[in-house]
Specification:
Layout (H helix, E strand, L loop, with lengths): L9 E6 L4 H13 L3 E7 L11 H6 L10 E5 L5 H11 L3 E4 L6 H6 L2 H21 L3 E7 L22 H20 L3 E6 L1 E3 L8 H11 L3 E4 L5 E6 H14 L5 E4 L2 E4 H10 L5 H4 E4 L14 H7 L7 H14 L1 H8 L2 H12 L4
Length: 355
Amino acid sequence: MKIKNSTINKSVLVTGGSGFIGSNFVRHFYHAYPDYRVVNLDFLTYAGNTDNLKDIEELEKGILPDERRYQFVQGDICDVEILAKLFEKYNFEFVFNFAAETHVDRSIMGISDFIRTNISGVCALIEAVRRNKTTRFVHISTDEVYGSTVRGGADEDAPFRPASPYAASKAAADLIVQAFMRTHSVPTVILRGSNNYGPFQYPEKLIPLAISNVIDGRKIPVHGTGEHVRSWLNVNDFCRAVDLVARRAPDYGIYNVSGEEMTNLEILQKVVSHLDIRLADHKEHVSDRPNADLRYAPDSTKIRRELGWAPEENVEKSLGNVVAWYLTNQDWLKKIKSRREYQYIYEKQSRGQWY
C-alpha cells in the first residue's frame, strides 16, 4: 500500500547533496523540518555517492514518489533546462549550493572541472534563482579564498588571496554571487567554512584518508612538515550554521564559520589516538603542495555575535565518534577504494606527485 504524505507544503533545493557536507546537510534539514520537501540535485561525480543518504531513502519507502519529502535528481547545475524544470515544479524557498569540486590536489593536477562546476555552475544556478524572484540563495564557500594568514584572523572583509586553483575558483564564484546581490538584488547569503570532518567524507581528505590507510596497513601521507595550520570543524556544527544563516541572517550577509586551530600533525595525532597506534610509526612525509598555504585562520566573530552560533562538538571528543563511524562502515570505504579513479589519484597523492 502506498502512503500519501500530506504534510509537504514547502520545498528547498540542495545541490551537491550526495557529497560529504551536502549529504550531512540533507539529513539535518530532513529531520529538522518535517513540513519541507528536500530536492537533492547531484551530478554524481567521483565524490557524489547515493549510498550517503540510504537511511533517508529507507524512511521514504512506501510513500508515493511525488509525495516523498526527499527527492533525488541526477543532474548538472550547469544544465539550465534541468534547473528551469525544477524551479517551475517546486518554487523553492531556499537553494543551498554545496555543489563544487573541492580537492586542492586535484585542482593542481587540472583546473577545468573546477572552472566548470565552481564558476559556470554557480552562474547558471544563481541566474535560475534570479528568475524565480522568491528564492533565497545560500552559497557555500571556503576560508581558502583568503589565502594564508600569518597573524590574527581573516574576517569577512579581508582581501582575497587564493593560492590554489581550487581557492581561485571559489573566490571567483563568491564575486559572481556578490555581483548578483548588488546588480539584481538577489536575496543571497554566503558562508565561508573551514576544514570540515565527519562521516561520509571522501577518503582523499586528510582524516578519512588517515583512518583508511591505517585500516589497510599503509602509511599516512603527510604533506611537507605537517605544520600547516587549519581550523577544524565538525560537519554537524557547520550544518547548523548553514541552517541558521539561511533563516536568520539579513540578505547579503557573509559569514565565516570556523572551529579549532591545529596543525595537520596535531589533528592526525588526535585521530590515531582513537586507533591505539603511534603516529610516528604510521606517517610518511611526502612532497608539499606547490605554494601551499601555511595557515588558514577565518575569524568567526561575526556569526557568533550576530546569530549566536558556536560549535557544539569538541574536536577531540567528536573525532572518536568519527573514527568509530569509519571503522564500522568499512564496506562504504572499500566500495570507493575499489574504483580505478580513486586508485589513480591516491597513488599520485601519496607520493606528492602534482603533475
